[in-house]
Design goal:
The protein contains 19 helices and 16 strands. InterPro entries: AAA+_ATPase (IPR003593), AAA_lid_NorR (IPR058031), CheY-like_superfamily (IPR011006), Homeodomain-like_sf (IPR009057), P-loop_NTPase (IPR027417), Sig_transdc_resp-reg_receiver (IPR001789), Sigma_54_int (IPR002078), Sigma_54_int_dom_ATP-bd_1 (IPR025662).
């Protein structure tokens, strides 16, 4: 997969030259002529690197860099500068610009610097190379998800503990697996445990293991999940639900890198990378004394936040069709897509259960499907909630106007004079609005009221 470079320069000839040079080197290039256009492009798709001139109309290259650093801290930026702006470019490198080159620049040096920036910041995205299998299970074209995955790819190279925040159903375990697959530990085990799904009495034994006879029912030695994950990654899901007594023991394991099985007299060394996840507000839990502060800072070396499905709606059609193709095989169904209205209903539904809820809905419609295209009726049945209606601006304005007028007429008992006064419009204009929407004031008069203007 070729790396994507966003090039920004207000000189059309320079923009064309840079684009041709980078494309010849195997990069995918998007070329824009202003910082404003670059920011708009970043909102649509996150590139792997930004190459920008310093002197631009409107926002200059330095202001563009500041915006990028604020919203995309892991995105490398290279600046092109004239001699007069070298001091600014030097200052920029101290603030995080990867490097700067003075015009006229050497073409080979430019390519070398780009390759160097990509190798340090995005090892999986280089020209004509790169393996995206580490994130293959995460289906997305959302710019927000791409930014998150770029950060995850960088984090994967270290052994730092990661805390993933996100609502239930957003895919926290999938992200943890992706980080593991992109890490040097990829060939070792990935072991997951839901800390809220196992009774407190069993969780210690499940995590740390036990020896034969440690308690009633311990008929043999048992290796815990820490030992099972040795050399690899242990994913502690819903870490916020871990009992306080066990939090103390987990902290000790993280500090000493050893586990002591229940009933054992000695500890066993373990080499495990910890990724944890929660849908709870752990800062609030700490304030209430429900989560240990020292454990929180041990787990939260790097923090990632997964967006809700409603925050990445552009992914809904992609995910729905992806799930449908997999489930059609599972159920042996000859289905190949959704009717347009059915897909619209999916794309506009609220999705409180996020991606997990979407999967369940697609599974239900697939199981019940009798036609090659999934109809709207099946989707509505599976959703069991009204879809969010998407209106054009004109339609929304017209609907608001009508509902507003109806509300005024109800409030004033059908009195046009009073309604017009509340709306701060003259009566003639108000009558025109009523006529436009086919509203008759007399319909809103209650029995016994007099017809007033």
């Amino acid at each position: 997969m070729s790396a994507h470079v966003l090039v920004v320069d207000d000189d059309p000839d320079m923009l064309r030259l840079l684009s041709m040079r980078l494309q010849a080197a195997g990069y995918r290039v998007t070329a824009v002529e202003s910082a404003e256009a670059a920011l708009a492009q970043l909102a649509v798709e996150r590139p792997n690197l930004v190459l920008s001139d310093v002197q631009l109309p409107g926002k200059d290259g330095m202001a563009l860099f500041d915006e990028i650093r604020a919203h995309h801290p892991a995105l490398p930026v290279i600046l092109l500068t004239a001699h007069g702006t070298i001091p600014d470019a030097v200052e920029a490198t101290s603030r995080g610009v990867f490097t700067y080159l003075t015009k006229p620049f050497d073409g080979k040096l430019l390519l070398d610097k780009i390759a160097q920036a990509l190798s340090l910041t995005a090892p999986a995205a280089r020209p004509a190379s790169g393996d995206g299998s580490w994130r293959a299970d995460i289906v997305s074209r959302s710019a927000r998800m791409e930014e998150l995955l770029a950060e995850a790819r960088l984090i994967a190279q270290s052994d730092a503990s990661v805390l993933i925040h996100g609502e239930s159903g957003t895919g926290k375990e999938l992200l943890a697996q992706a980080i593991h697959k992109a890490s040097p530990r990829a060939q070792r085990p990935f072991v997951a445990v839901n800390c809220g799904a196992i009774p407190e009495a069993l969780l210690e034994s499940e995590l740390f293991g036990h020896v034969k006879g440690a308690f009633t029912g311990a008929v043999a030695n048992h290796r815990g999940l820490f030992q099972a994950a040795d050399g690899g990654t242990l994913f502690l899901d819903e870490i916020g639900d871990m009992p306080l007594a066990l939090q103390v023991k987990l902290l000790r394991v993280l500090q000493e890198r050893c586990v002591r099985p229940v009933g054992a007299s000695h500890s066993v060394p373990v080499d495990v990378r910890i990724i944890s996840a929660t849908h709870r507000n752990l800062e609030a839990a700490m304030a209430e004394g429900q989560f240990r502060e020292d454990l929180y800072y041990r787990l939260n070396v790097v923090s990632l936040t997964l967006p809700t499905l409603a925050e990445r709606r552009e992914d809904i059609p992609l995910l729905a069709n992806h799930f449908l193709s997999r489930l059609a095989v599972k159920y042996g169904k000859q289905v190949n897509g959704f009717a347009p209205e059915a897909l619209k209903a999916l794309a506009t539904a609220p999705w409180p259960g996020n991606v997990r809820q979407l999967y369940n809905v697609v599974e239900q419609v697939c199981a019940l499907a009798t036609t090659p295209l999934i109809p709207l009726a099946l989707v509505q049945r599976a959703l069991r909630v009204p879809s969010v209606e998407v209106l054009s601006y004109a339609e929304a304005k017209q609907r608001f106007e009508r509902e507003y007028l109806v509300g005024l007429l109800k409030l004033t008992d059908g009195s046009v004079a009073d309604a017009a006064r509340l709306a701060q419009r003259n009566r003639t204009e108000f009558y025109r609005l009523l006529q436009k929407h086919g509203l008759t004031p007399g319909l809103f008069r209650t029995e016994g009221s007099s017809p007033t203007e």
